Amino acid sequence: MDTLFIGNNIVRLTEVDSTNSYARALLKDVNVHEGMVIWADNQTNGRGQRGSVWNAEPLANITFSLILNPGFLNATNHFHLSKIVALAIHATLTEILGTDNYDIKIKWPNDILVNRKKICGVLIEHIFRADHIHQSIVGIGLNVNQVDFGELESKATSLKLVSGKEFARDEVLSKLLKNLEVLYLQLKQGKEKEININYLKFLLYFEQETSFNDLKNNSSFKGKIVNVLPNGYLEVEFNSGERRKFDMKEVGFGY
Ligand code: BTN
Description:
It is built from five helices and twelve strands. The protein is α+β, with helices and mostly antiparallel strands.
């Protein structure tokens, strides 16, 4: 592994309920070095955002959790970590696919899309201590060689589906871990301004009018994304020029 600490220790599992759950249990019991990766060939209870499930064909994809100790991050700035994770996935896909035939986008909060279909999902769980993040479990599910997504066919994709090629999963994971380390170290050095600029550069519907669903009032409105705040709130500008901030439970939009 061509990294300083991320992925130096990879726990390889044939099957587990969820790598995030496994990591959480491990953190309760033992002292874990920052950068440890739990990588499973199959998850029987893969977890997604907002209580959803993450289904991935065994042995075809990458499903892993990375343990980080971002003690330098205040709890209210937790979304900086989501930004660097999304950027690392974006950079890895760009490295593998190039940009000529592929539109690689980050969809707030942290899905990654290729040609408007979801290729990667992220579930980050934090353990807080006082007002800081003590430990983070960064769970990533990247679709690599799966070609059948059943009823999700119109929404999901994989590296193989978009490129027609098979990929060695360990090579894809190595690239991703390398990019995660580079970006994590940038964040640790306080480069959150540059990180945000890059995040917005690849963000779907940044400065572009689209239709949003108001999840609380079950209605819709038009506007454009103008920023994503350190706490993860989405800042939207309406046609009137008025700006409002929404959290994940308040707003959604399609792709
Ligand atoms: C989402 O898009 O809803 C997030 C999906 C996150 C899936 C990954 S797979 C590895 C890790 N373990 C889990 O149980 N979930 C995450």
